[in-house]
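Morning run. Coffee first, then this:
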Amino acid sequence: MKFLDIDGPLIQFLSKMADIMWLNILTIVCCIPVITAGASLTALHYMVLKIVRDEDGYITRGYFKAFKENFKQSTAIWLIFLVVGSVLAVDYRIFTASEVELNNVVKTLIFIFGMMVVFTFVFVFPVQAKFANPVRRTIWNSFVFSVVQFPRTILMIVLYILPYVIGYFFPRILPVVMVFCISLPALLSAKLYNKFFLRLEDQILARDQTGDNEETSEGGGETEEDERIFKDELDESIQLSQND
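And here it is:
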């Protein structure tokens, strides 16, 4: 039966599920030291975007390639969010334990800042996985992306929370949920932002095409293809892509 052939839909589906499960295991294991969580999440998003674009190849090799290449900057980004998140959590505990009643303005400001952090966090590692910029620029672009893609950002947040909600209300299937709890939401999120990223990449490449052609003519071109890095600040591209 063609349905059961190695290139058939069933085998291809099962192969994808196995890749997603393995990515989940790799990410959890590499997040255990905590300090490496940023590089682990960046490598995860690097690989799920390749899967969405049918460029997957070798999962383990690609994962650790991205892990190594992004380690320094991803760790810096992760530590920034870890510190900011910890400060917000401590402030929340202090304010809730205190008998002093906060006025509505202060409560609103805390809520808005917390949501800005969450929105930015949802996009920061996908952006780091695909675009090369300084840490400050990566974080800023991620925030702008989250605002420009607001409905998708909300859906991505829901996708990341959903496995834990399912595990809480249906504990019997918790083992199944745990083997897909990080990688599957990341994959579905990549499907949401992939079109937006492609548009940005096309704009960057079109804008830089003339300069690249001149460099290739003078220097003979690059000897190794770089799938990830588009060295650009992206601000103009963000503005052009707001209607996507």
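Residues 7 and 13 are 10 Å apart (CA to CA). Good start to the day.
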